[in-house]
């Protein structure tokens, strides 16, 4: 799996694969490989997205807690 | 030497002469009042009326407000918002009276308050015109509003370091500090007090000195508050003095005034930002900081919303991609009842490549059928699946 890709790179690759699949121009004998690659990109994107979500939540929680303690709430 | 006459005879002569000349006549005079001694309980006021030329006294005469005219003093103080005290210029109606014991006196009957108001207003207008004329870079008048270097200085986003000019132990000092200390948001302020007398003849110089100290201070202040207590009758003349007004107009730190009066604004008010009372200046500072906090809260909410939207959109796109990929997978195709035909382990896409007697494999979901082609026909019509 190409886990070295960042979210944008992985998503761009995924978009290309999805476009090819939607066009129906992929030779059937190459279809399985393409689908496999697309699934790998999905996993990369989902993992990255979860990681980003967790990071954002951690940051906003921290800011919110700081603000509440400053206001004595 | 002729035989002496009694002193009382002479004073009687003087009294008769004065009476015959001044009896019943009322004069309107303009003079400076000095040696003012008010006796509120008996409602009398003794003073001297004086006239000066080039700084030298040229005339002085004693005068009295009797009880029936004492209300004129109260009216003067109420309307002009300045105390009836030494140095004030008045125009008044007087009668000449001579008493053999108390001598020559003027009985003051009435003060021309309108004239005094006019004089004050004229002086004020002259100062304003001079300010604009002599300081065009720092003071401009647009549509009746004075725009000065100082009152156009931007305020910092958060006001925390405050220089306070006020009189020690005054109502203004107490009100201002109390309002800041008890603010409901519990904001903290660093207040440095520059205490001085802010009433009286040289008050404007004392205030100016405090401004100089603030300017020279290594402490960078966010704002200067000049406040004086409300309630007591005050002399606002220091706040109309040209020298102080110019200094405030050019001062590099925003100045707020709360000098507590209902009369027309003082000129310093016009050169700075006016809030009327010390409490209002403090409230404005708290409100300014609260407004900034609200901006931050709003920005934080917008950031959170924007991130949530973007993450939701990304998740949705991934879900959509997953659906498309699933539908495209060969296994999914087989699950839905379709078959894949291979020959020599190669998927056959083009039916022209299949000939009779060829060995082919038909791959279904769970099984593969190995067969030999016996016949090939073209579909008469397109197979609808």
Give the topology string of chain B: H per helix, E per strand: HEEEHEEHEEEHEHEHEHEHHEEEE
Summed up, the domain count of chain A is 1
- Beta-strand percent range of chain B: 25-35%
* Mean pLDDT across all amino acids of chain A: 79
Judging by the overall fold, what is the CATH architecture of the largest domain in chain B? 3-Layer(aba) Sandwich
Question: Helix amount of chain A, in percent?
Answer: over 70%
What is the N-to-C order of secondary-structure elements of chain A (H for helix, E for strand)?
HH
Sum this structure up briefly.
The complex is a heterodimer of chains A (73) and B (385). Chain A is mainly α and 73 residues long.
Give a written overview of the molecule.
The complex is a heterodimer of chains A (73) and B (385). By secondary structure, chain A is mostly helical. Chain A is built from 2 helices and no strands. Chain A has one domain. Chain A has helices spanning 7-23, 28-70. The longest helix of chain A is centred in the C-terminal third of the chain and has 43 residues, at 28-70. Chain B folds into 3 domains: 7-111, Beta Barrel (OB fold (Dihydrolipoamide Acetyltransferase, E2P)); 159-290, Response regulator (Rossmann fold); 332-372, no CATH class. In chain B, a hairpin with a 3-residue loop joins strand 4 (89-99) and strand 5 (103-111). Chain B is of the alpha/beta class and 385 residues long. The model of chain B has no long low-confidence stretch (mean pLDDT 89). The longest helix of chain B has 51 residues, at 278-328. In chain B, helix 4 (171-181) runs parallel beside helix 8 and helix 5 packs parallel to helix 6 (242-249). The radius of gyration of chain B is 46 Å and the shape is rod-shaped. The chains are: A mainly alpha (73), B alpha/beta (385). At the A-B interface, helix 1 and helix 2 of A face helix 8 and strand 14 of B.
């Amino acid at each position: 799996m190409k886990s070295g890709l960042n979210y944008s790179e992985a998503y761009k690759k995924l978009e290309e694969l999805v476009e090819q699949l939607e066009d129906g121009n992929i030779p059937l004998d190459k279809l399985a490989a393409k689908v496999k690659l697309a699934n790998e990109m999905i996993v990369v994107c989902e993992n990255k997205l979860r990681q980003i979500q967790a990071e954002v939540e951690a940051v906003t929680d921290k800011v919110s807690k700081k603000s509440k303690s400053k206001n004595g709430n | 030497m002729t035989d002496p006459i009694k002193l009382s005879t002479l004073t009687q002569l003087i009294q008769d002469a004065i009476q015959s000349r001044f009896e019943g006549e009322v004069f309107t005079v303009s003079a400076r009042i000095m040696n003012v001694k008010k006796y509120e309980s008996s409602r009398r006021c003794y003073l001297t009326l004086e006239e000066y030329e080039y700084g030298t006294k040229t005339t002085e005469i004693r005068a009295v407000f009797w009880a029936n005219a004492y209300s004129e003093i109260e009216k003067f103080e109420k309307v002009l918002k300045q105390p009836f005290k030494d140095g004030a210029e008045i125009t008044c109606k007087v009668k000449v009276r001579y008493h053999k014991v108390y001598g020559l006196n003027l009985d003051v009957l009435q003060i021309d308050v309108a004239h005094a108001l006019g004089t004050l207003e004229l002086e004020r207008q002259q100062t304003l015109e001079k300010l604009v004329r002599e300081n065009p870079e720092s003071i401009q008048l647009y549509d009746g509003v004075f725009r000065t270097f100082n009152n156009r200085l931007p305020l910092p986003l958060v006001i925390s370091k405050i220089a306070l000019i006020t009189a020690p132990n005054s109502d203004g000092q107490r009100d201002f500090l109390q309002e800041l200390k008890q603010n409901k948001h519990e904001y903290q302020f660093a207040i440095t007090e520059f205490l001085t007398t802010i009433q009286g003849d040289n008050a404007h110089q004392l205030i100016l000195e405090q401004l100089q100290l603030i300017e020279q201070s290594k402490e960078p202040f966010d704002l200067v508050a000049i406040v004086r207590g409300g309630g007591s009758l005050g002399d606002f003349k220091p706040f109309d003095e040209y020298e102080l007004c110019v200094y405030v107009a050019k001062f590099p730190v925003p100045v707020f005034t709360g000098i507590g009066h209902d009369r027309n604004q003082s000129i310093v008010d016009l050169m700075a930002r006016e809030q009327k009372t010390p409490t209002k200046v403090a409230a404005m500072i708290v409100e300014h900081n609260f407004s900034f906090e609200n901006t931050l809260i709003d920005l934080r909410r917008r950031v959170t919303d924007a991130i949530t939207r973007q993450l939701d959109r990304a998740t949705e796109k991934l879900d959509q991609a997953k659906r498309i990929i699933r539908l495209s997978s060969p296994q999914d195709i087989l699950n839905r009842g379709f078959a894949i035909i291979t020959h020599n382990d190669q998927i056959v896409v083009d039916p022209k490549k299949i000939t009779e007697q060829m060995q082919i494999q038909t791959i279904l979901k769970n099984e593969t059928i190995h067969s030999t082609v016996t016949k090939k026909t073209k579909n008469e019509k397109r197979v609808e699946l």
